[in-house]
Amino acid sequence: MIKRWFMGIATLLLLSGSALAQSTFVEGTDYQTISPAVKTSQPDKVVVTEVFWYGCPHCFRFEPFVERWSASLPEGVVFEQLPSALNPRWIEHARAYYTFKMMNAHDQTHKALFDAIHLKRQRIMDLDSLAKFAAEQGLDEKLFRENYFSFPVETQIRKNIQKEKRYGHRGVPAVIVNGKYLVSASLAGSNERMLNIMNYLVGLELSQ
Which range of residues forms the domain containing residue 22? Predict the structure, then answer.
């Protein structure tokens, strides 16, 4: 499986016109090293973490790329998402993300919330508008409101804030590879190149 993964990386680099990317991806230019490394949720795996905000148009455009990328990961690599609380305005969406998780509705609501904000141009920024969105998805609005400020959600928000401070990123989307490397849209320059750099760094971690 890992052999096929590396073959896939080589194909992706060739298709993007970056066959020599392994020698041209430079720390400090194409990605940043996180020091000290941040402990991951699964220390025995290579964990790739996407940091995003529902209101971010760049995150919205990156989402289909990372969705396809994460659909065919090799053994030993796991993908997770972290809704950013970097900006106080973004915390409402982070709360909603974990509330939907608690309601087992993440798969139903994740893309729908992105689409509602960026395609339907709906202003969904606070508890009332998020609760209305939840109801429109067929969910229990009362239960959503009850979970929104629950202890598990509050705990996760605090953990996110602490993690993001250690990641050191300044915007979204950002991708953290195994708690060691930061790949940002601003450094990568394009969604395709962002994936190339992610593949390169995942390859480095798998080879260790």
Answer: 2-206
